[in-house]
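INFO batch 0412 | record 1 of 1 | parsing
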Amino acid sequence: MSSNRIVEILPGLYQIRLPIPIRSLGYVFAYLAKDADDNLLIDAGWPSEEAFVALQSSLSEIGFSIGKIKTTVISHLHPDHFGLAEQIRDLAPNSKLIIHRADASLILDSYDEYNGFITELHEWLAEHGTPDEELSAILDASAEMLHFFRPPKPTTIVEGGENLRVGDKWNFEVIPTPGHTVGTICLYDRMSKVLFSGDHILPTITPNVSLGPYYRGDPLGDYLISLDKVRELEVASVLPSHEHLFSALQKRAGEIKAHHNDRLEDALSVLRKSADELMSGYQISTKLKWYSGSWETLGPWERRAAIMETLAHLEYLKRRGTIAEVDELVEGKPQVKYALVGKAC
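INFO prediction complete | emitting C-alpha cells
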C-alpha cells in the first residue's frame, strides 16, 4: 500500500515523507516499524505544524496514531530528525525517546543555551577567517531556529551495540556511526537485512561533515571509519533519511570515500596555488566546488555548512601531516590559517 506520504516498504515497515524548509532537500523520511502491538518510530521530522499534520495524516492512513507510538529513536541531533520528538511525547507520554550518549550530551535545554552555542559558533567562524558581513548573515539564519526550538528530552541513552526489539519480527542493532554528528547512529535488522542509514549514507548526495566548537576531534576521520563499519554488513535495502531507497551499499560507500578523497585533493590544490600565502578555512572554502552551486549562489546557512565542512577536511589533512595550522593575531584578534607543510610556516 502507498500514498503520496507513506509507503509500506516491507510488511510492517513504513516510510513516511515529512516536509522540511531546507531548499536543497525538501523533505525528510521517518520510518515506522510495527509488529502486533509493538512499534518503533525512527526519527521525528522538522519542528513545524506542517510536518506534524503530515505525520498525523500519514499514520491515520494505516489506522495508526501518534498516541500509539511506543518508542522513538533519534538518529542524530539535527532538527529535521528530532524536531517533533516532544510533540509526539505530548500525545504518547509513556513512550520512550532514545538517542546516543554523545549527541545527548550536546542537547541545548533553553534559549539561553542555544544563544550561547550560536555565539561560540560565530566566534569560531570568525577565528577561521569569516568576514563580519558573512557572520551577520549567518547569525540571522541561525537565529531563525529560535522560532522552532524545543529540545528533545531522551528517556533512554544508547552507546552502540544495543538491540531494539519490535514484537517478534524486528530486532534493530544500534550501530554508532560518528561523523555527520558525534552521536549519529544507524539501525540494522539482520533478519530482513535492512539498514536504516539516516544521513550517514545517502544515495546520491553526501552528508555534511563539519569541524566546529562542538565537534573538535577528527570528524572526517570518524566518518570514513564509520563508512567502513557499515559497508561490511550484509544489506539488502538501505533506508536513508533523504532522496530514495537503494541497495548497493558497498558501491555507494566507495563512491562517498572517493568523493572525500577528491575534496581533500581540491583543498590541497587551493593551498598549492597560494604560493607562500597563508590561507584561512573561509578563504579555502570559497574556492572549492559545492554540489548546490558556486560559492556566490550559496545562502548563509549553506555557507556556514560549507565553511565547517572545509575545516573538517583541513583538520583531517593536518592530523596526517600534510598541512600545518598556523595561529596568528590579526588586528588583535586570533586567526587560524593553513599552509602546506614546509611552506609559509
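INFO post-check: DSSP finds ten helices and 15 strands in the chain.
INFO record closed
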